[in-house]
Amino acid sequence: MRPLSMLLLLSATSAHAEVSLQSLLDRLGDAEEKKLAIPACRFVENSVTEQLDKEGNIKGRLTRSYEVIRAGTNVVSRKKLSEKEEGELLSQLKAEPQDQKQNEDPRGRVSPFHPKVRDEYQFEQSAGPREGLVTVKITPRKADKKRMRGTAVVDPRTAQLISMRLSPSELPSMLDSFQIDFAYADTPCERQPTQLEFAGTGGVFFYKVRFRTQVKISGHQVLESTDIGGSGP
How close are the terminal C-alpha atoms of the chain, in Å? Predict the structure, then answer.
């Protein structure tokens, strides 16, 4: 029985590895459309932003909490619940989150896997960080500040995102480096990033700033459009 069991295990592993890239992209795209079709999602966003010195020591910290309602790619409501500032922080690091404006092109806020923007990217599939997962490399066909590049770790059996690491394909002038790490989990609002980490360096001439922000998102609730004053996705 042991050789037979090993054969079955190897066959199952091979089947997972043979999921075609196109099939995987189609299923990831379907998941993105399903997520954005939810009338609205309410959640709590807790963030910690830190300014670091050149040795990586913390110079200042800003801890904030918001109740957020998102409909599609638009944040229709952001209510600050708490805020605590410690130490020294640049004013730019204390700015309020830049939410998607109602009439703004949503392409910069849509996943590269969404069918509306997928043709703007090239994708390559390779072995994942552990057995049963694959890594998908994401490269924009044309670099700009809104198109991201990076990698996603995906479970090919379920077409679920596990994690993603992205950075702008073209950095804004004041940044030397910037990347975002996403960790995904199932929520009442479909599969969503529930932990994010932003890290970057920037500045002008000899004045350089290092910073990082950790965000945890929890308490997801699906809302109907009537619960948000008729706003739709």
Answer: 54
